[in-house]
UniProtKB/TrEMBL annotation, chain A:
SUPFAM superfamilies: Anticodon-binding domain of PheRS, Class II aaRS and biotin synthetases, Nucleic acid-binding proteins, PheT/TilS domain, Putative DNA-binding domain. Coiled coil: none annotated. It comes from Aquisalinus flavus. It catalyses: tRNA(Phe) + L-phenylalanine + ATP = L-phenylalanyl-tRNA(Phe) + AMP + diphosphate + H(+). Belongs to the phenylalanyl-tRNA synthetase beta subunit family. Type 1 subfamily. The lineage of its organism: Bacteria, Pseudomonadati, Pseudomonadota, Alphaproteobacteria, Parvularculales. Pfam families: B3_4, B5, FDX-ACB, tRNA_bind, tRNA_synthFbeta. This is Phenylalanine--tRNA ligase beta subunit.
UniProtKB/TrEMBL annotation, chain B:
The keyword Aminoacyl-tRNA synthetase applies. One of its GO terms (cellular component) is cytoplasm. Mg(2+) binds at residue 258. It catalyses: tRNA(Phe) + L-phenylalanine + ATP = L-phenylalanyl-tRNA(Phe) + AMP + diphosphate + H(+). This is Phenylalanine--tRNA ligase alpha subunit. Keywords: Aminoacyl-tRNA synthetase, ATP-binding, Cytoplasm, Ligase, Magnesium, Metal-binding, Nucleotide-binding, Protein biosynthesis. Signal peptide: none annotated. Pfam families: Phe_tRNA-synt_N (PF02912), tRNA-synt_2d (PF01409).
Length: 800, 358
């Protein structure tokens, strides 16, 4: 909210400087966002005196002026129609920044004539909209005097953030109260009076018409009738104040309601009495009703909205915006001024439904002071009498001002308990009193809460009031006591898997990405089995391509690969460890380590190494191993999901059920749909599925099993059907003698001449590790025979 | 010159003339082989008289020994020469480039979170996490946001579609729901931090629809706002790795804390660079406060018995401030050039023993 310094001083008697006021506001929790001090902003502009103005030799509309300035006499070329001899002007020297044209002045030659500086219009100095000519200052102005001072635009404007808990600071009076409590001066806000009427009854009466149970929509509705007003432009001081805080002056009556709204946080509404029937009602809306509001738009009314209506039409949305039909015009003579209290929750809902943004809605939904209902009328009536004349009726009032009085039991020791601040009880009492609270002593004080502070519920709120006024710099900085001399680990094993997987993948050349948790719905379908999950579709996405919670990180990473490839970076590995969503329940979120590679290595004299599906497999295994999975026990199966190439993909699992990872070449159809040239290799590691180590156990490692006996190795070549997984043969070979066979490694895969059609040759080196004595040739031959027998059982034949 | 002397000279000349190991072996066979000239002479010893033998024995043995040594020496010399020749032919151009290896990097958000975890772990904070698709109760109601209160609107919430029962899920707007989940399932004393993704329906130069927060929560019987201040001051100093940091607590409003505050940190601009720590200007860096009695009650804790503080800060923003990263949106753009430039070596594992960063 914005307010001017002079406005504040109507409520606060202070000699504090602008800086001190701003500093104090920040200290008590009124967060100042911007201070505009026109005197500082316009300090470069001073009064000049046009000594003479002659026509420009080469331009009909320009004049060459000699101007007396603080910098001596200057020649200035000017195009304004009113640039003439003898006037006092707003002189801008060379080097000055002119805000209205967003330019810094330099020396110039205009049509061949030198011009040093500028004479400015009101708009050029952002002092108003006037651009018909240059500013003409009063004759009494002295050369060199600041223009801001002469023209009366030296009132600083302070803009601060009103937090939702402080509706009272939507009025300047509320700000002044905080500042006075903080010791910045004396609160001089005039107490509310009673509306001063001229003793006749209002021809308009008001009624509340709510079904039982909905009365709280508008518990009180009051108003006065003013006959014979002279509306029209409001006085300059009022227009200046409103303009300074960013409001557009409309006419005196509208300006008065705006003034009261910003002065006391009390919204009012004025009806043209000629346009309304004698009875106006606050009631809930009816389906089918509409309102053409003051903003020129037509809104649909429904039965949840509070409206003000007469017998013929809806006149306004209660507490939000009035209707165009009954709005006051410059020539309006009889008016009805409304002051009411609207339920903040209902007002907020109606505001959201209609999308209307207004000062009235803003204040009503945050909660206005119910006690200001009639008193606000008093302030308006006083201003109307003064500015517009007219005869004021007696107040009409329906319902009753809601009783919001409450008292809070407040043990003063709470301040120390919650903040650590040691504070005198007397100072606490002073602060609470200055903020408008009533304090009755006792072990626990009985503190009565003023009606303009709906945010105060309990003792913690009072602690905050006291703490913010004494200043949070009084809170004693205190270290938390240590819980242990040396802290135990703070990551759980499960949490640490994430860290380890990330670091393992980065060590393998992957760059870590963080992509949105959303993706495109069609992409979601590509990676979740054709159909997207309606529970994972956002109702209000930031854009349609970010409308679905991702079922996989792959689409986002593949898109990232494409974007990088479009920039010429087509050799890249990206990974992300993050959430994917299978549903909207608290346990439907899983943490996956996902990586993708686009392999197009630069040529190298030793030959470039291109990634393939086995790179992805190795990456997946590396991530699993880093994260603590027992990789020696992994099963490999070829049933990866259908976004992978059916022949070049696989699944790593523990037993047949617990899938730990999927890897492979991404299906060419998927890549085509995502408009990227492949191949792309990817993997997804399901970190949550990795079994956690059981119990804590000791840290002792098992003894080293290193035999001093020489190991023996033998090579075997087997012919197997092409479709037979190598792993089946390896398993058979390893199983031939679990005690003696220390390792078996596949060192050649061959298909072609010499091997039958539909067959392949697999060559395996088997290492035998004798345990207690050197093996005899017979023993070695026996193991070899068992290996061959096992292989044959698995469907292989020894290659002749 | 005796006959033997002549033989020795002849053999020595042959040895010296042998240019290859093969030629040398021929000489060895010629001299010392079974039918070699020296061997033949040795055979004659048996037919000699004892006197002759006494003279010729040592002479012949001496000859045999010297020739053998000469051959061995020549052999060693030839081997050395052959090695030299081989080495000379084996020279490579060591300026040839090695095969390039991709250098992986850790994202700044990950790195900075681990830095924060290291600091808070030292102060006894454990890590808790929670779901990102949340319900109204955990994200708002339990955190003392009254239904329809304008404070909710400041959160620009992403919603899912309404279900048949009228409920609708949302994306958590802050990590604070994890406070609720923790307090409802664990008994105080609690000291936790909560890292994670959060979401606001907002996208412009300084806002992204997803960003990262770290939440902190301490609940016990005596922790007050002074502890909050002390904890945060210690954190800021440790995090920015500077000795002197000016901070201030400034009153603010959050529905879930009372009293509430924001912490500002002093900074200055030197050239184009923003320096955290000292200076005339203040920058808001986090929100905090004492846990609101209504929040404690919502979690089944008696606010007259338990008390404590909570704070929340933007991980992305703190990463930007610490490491001079100019644009928030780049954090989530996956531009390889950016990731390589602002990312961290996987060996840089933040901890308080070696330092958070190098």
């Amino acid at each position: 909210m914005k307010f001017t310094l002079s406005w504040l001083k109507k409520h606060l008697d202070t000699d504090a400087t602008l800086e001190e006021i701003v500093e104090a506001m920040v200290r008590v929790g009124l967060e100042v966002e911007e201070v505009d001090d026109p005197a500082a902003r316009l300090k470069d502009f001073t009064i000049g005196h046009v000594i003479d103005a002659r026509p420009h030799p080469d331009a009909d509309k320009l004049r060459v002026c000699r101007v007396a300035t603080k910098d001596g006499e200057q020649q200035i070329v000017c195009g304004a129609p009113n640039a003439r001899t003898g006037i006092k002007v707003a002189y801008a020297p060379v080097g000055a920044y002119v805000p209205g044209i967003d330019a810094t002045l330099g020396k110039a030659k205009i049509r061949g004539v030198e011009s040093n500086g500028m004479m400015c219009s009101a708009r050029e100095l952002e002092m108003g909209d006037d651009h018909d000519g240059i500013i003409e200052a009063p004759e009494s102005a002295e050369i060199g005097q600041p223009v801001a001072e002469v023209m009366g635009v030296n009132d600083p404007v302070i803009d601060f953030e009103v937090t939702p808990n402080r509706p009272d600071t939507n009025g300047v009076a509320g700000v002044a109260r905080d500042l006075a409590a903080a010791g910045l001066g004396t609160l001089i806000t005039k107490p509310y009076g009673e509306p001063q009427g001229d003793g006749y009854d209002s021809p308009v009466s008001v009624e509340l018409d709510f079904a039982p149970g909905t009365e709280n929509a508008c518990p009180v509705f009051a108003g006065v009738y003013v006959r014979g007003v002279k509306n029209g432009q409001s006085p300059k001081w009022l227009r200046d104040q409103l303009r300074a805080i960013g409001l557009r002056p409309i006419n005196a009556l509208a300006d008065i309601t705006n003034y009261v709204s910003y002065d006391r946080a009390r919204p009012l509404h004025v009806y043209d009495a000629a346009k309304i029937r004698p009875v106006i009602r606050a009631r809930l809306g009816k389906e089918g009703e509409t309102l053409e509001a003051l903003d020129g738009k037509t809104y649909k009314i429904d039965a949840t909205m509070t409206v003000i209506a007469d017998d013929t039409r809806v006149l306004g949305l209660g507490g939000i915006m009035g209707g165009e039909y009954s709005g006051v015009e410059a020539d309006t003579t009889d008016v009805f001024i409304e002051s009411a209290y609207f339920d903040p929750v209902r007002t907020a809902r109606t505001g959201r439904k209609t999308g209307i943004v207004s000062d009235a809605r803003y204040r009503n939904e945050r909660g206005i002071d119910p006690a200001s209902c009639v008193a606000g009328l008093a302030q308006a009536v006083e201003m109307v009498r003064e500015l517009c004349g007219g005869a004021v009726s007696n107040v009409v009032l329906a319902g009753a001002v809601p009783d919001v009085s409450k008292t809070v039991a407040f043990p003063p020791a709470e301040v120390k308990r919650l903040t650590g601040i040691d504070l005198d009880a007397a100072e606490m009492e002073r602060i609470l009193t200055a903020l408008g609270f009533g304090v009755a002593p006792g072990d626990a004080w009985s503190v009565s809460v003023p009606s303009f502070r709906p945010d105060i519920e309990g003792k913690a709120d009072l602690v905050e009031e006291i703490a913010r006024i004494v200043g949070l710099d009084q809170v004693p900085s205190t270290p938390l006591p240590r819980l242990a001399v040396v802290e135990a680990p703070k990551y759980s094993r499960a949490q640490d898997r994430v860290r380890l997987a990330k670091r393992a993948l980065a060590s393998r050349g992957y760059l870590e990405s963080i992509t949105w948790s959303f993706c495109d719905a069609p992409e979601a379908a590509l990676f979740s089995g054709r159909q997207s999950n309606p529970d994972l579709v956002l109702a209000n996405p930031i854009s349609s391509d970010l409308g679905h919670m991702r079922p996989s990180i792959l689409p986002n990473l593949i898109s990232a690969l494409r974007r990088n490839a479009d920039r010429g970076r087509d050799d890249l590995a990206l990974f992300e460890v993050g959430p994917v969503y299978a549903g909207d329940g608290p346990t439907d979120q899983a943490t996956l380590a996902t990586g993708v590679r686009l392999s197009s290595p630069v040529r190298h004299w030793q030959g470039a190494q291109r990634a393939d599906v086995f790179t992805a497999k190795a990456d997946a295994i590396a991530a699993l191993e880093a994260a603590g999975a027992p990789v020696a026990n992994l099963m490999v199966m070829a049933n990866a999901p259908d976004w992978y190439h059916p022949g070049r993909s696989g699944v790593l699992s523990l037993g047949p059920k617990n899938v730990l990872a999927e890897f492979g070449e991404i299906h060419p159809r998927v890549l085509k749909a995502m408009d990227i040239d492949g191949p792309v290799y990817g993997f997804e590691v399901r970190l949550d599925n990795i079994p956690l180590p059981k119990g804590k156990g000791g840290k002792t490692k098992p003894a080293l099993d290193a035999s001093s006996l020489q190991a023996v190795s033998r090579d075997f070549a087997f012919i197997v059907p092409t479709a037979m997984p190598a792993e089946d043969l390896m398993k058979a070979v390893r199983g031939a003698d679990k005690k003696l066979i220390a390792a078996a490694s596949l060192f050649d895969v061959y298909e072609g001449p010499g091997v039958g059609e539909g067959e392949k040759s697999l060559a395996i080196e088997v290492t035998l590790q004798p345990r207690d004595r050197t093996l005899t040739d017979e023993e070695i031959d026996a193991v070899a025979a068992r290996i061959i027998a096992q292989a044959e059982k698995a469907g292989a034949t020894l290659r002749g | 010159m005796s006959d033997l002397d002549q033989l020795e000279k002849d053999l020595s000349d042959r040895i010296a003339a042998a240019e290859t190991e093969a030629a040398l072996d021929d000489v060895r066979v010629h001299a010392l082989g079974k039918k070699g000239v020296v061997s033949e002479r040795m055979k004659t010893l048996g037919r000699m008289s004892p006197e002759e033998r006494q003279e010729m024995g040592p002479a012949l043995n001496g000859l045999k020994g010297r020739i053998g040594e000469a051959i061995a020496a020549r052999k060693a010399m030839l081997e050395e020469a052959a090695l030299e020749a081989r080495l000379a032919s084996e020279k490579v151009d060591i300026t040839l480039p090695v095969r390039p290896e991709a250098k992986g990097k850790i994202h700044p958000v990950t790195q900075v979170f681990e830095e924060m975890a290291a600091i808070f772990a030292d102060m006894g904070f454990e890590i808790r996490e929670g779901p990102e698709i949340e319900d109204d109760f955990h994200n708002f109601t339990a955190l003392n946001f009254p239904p329809d209160h304008p404070a909710r609107e400041t959160h620009d919430t992403f919603f899912f579609n309404e279900k048949e029962d009228g409920s609708r899920k949302l994306l958590r707007t802050h990590t604070s729901p994890v406070q609720i989940r923790t307090m409802m399932t664990e008994k105080p004393p609690l000291r936790i931090i909560v890292p994670g993704r959060v979401y606001r329906c907002d996208s412009d130069q300084t806002h992204t629809p997803m960003f990262h927060q770290v939440e902190g929560l301490v609940i016990d019987r005596e922790t007050h706002m002074g502890h909050l201040k002390g904890t945060l001051e210690a954190f800021i100093k440790a995090f920015f790795e500077i000795d002197e940091v000016t901070t201030r607590l400034r009153p603010h409003h959050f529905p879930f804390t009372e009293p509430s505050a924001e912490m500002d940190v002093g900074y200055e601009r030197v050239g184009g660079e923003l320096r955290i720590g000292q200076g005339e200007k203040w920058m808001e860096i986090l929100g905090c406060g004492m846990v609101h009695p209504n929040v404690l009650r919502a979690c089944g804790l008696d606010p007259d018995e338990y008390q404590g503080f909570a704070f929340g800060m933007g991980v992305d923003r703190l990463a930007m401030l610490k490491y001079g990263i100019p644009d928030l949106r780049d954090m989530f753009a996956s531009d390889a050039r950016w990731l390589e430039h602002y990312g961290f070596d996987p060996l840089d594992q933040p901890n308080t023993a070696t330092g958070l960063s190098r």
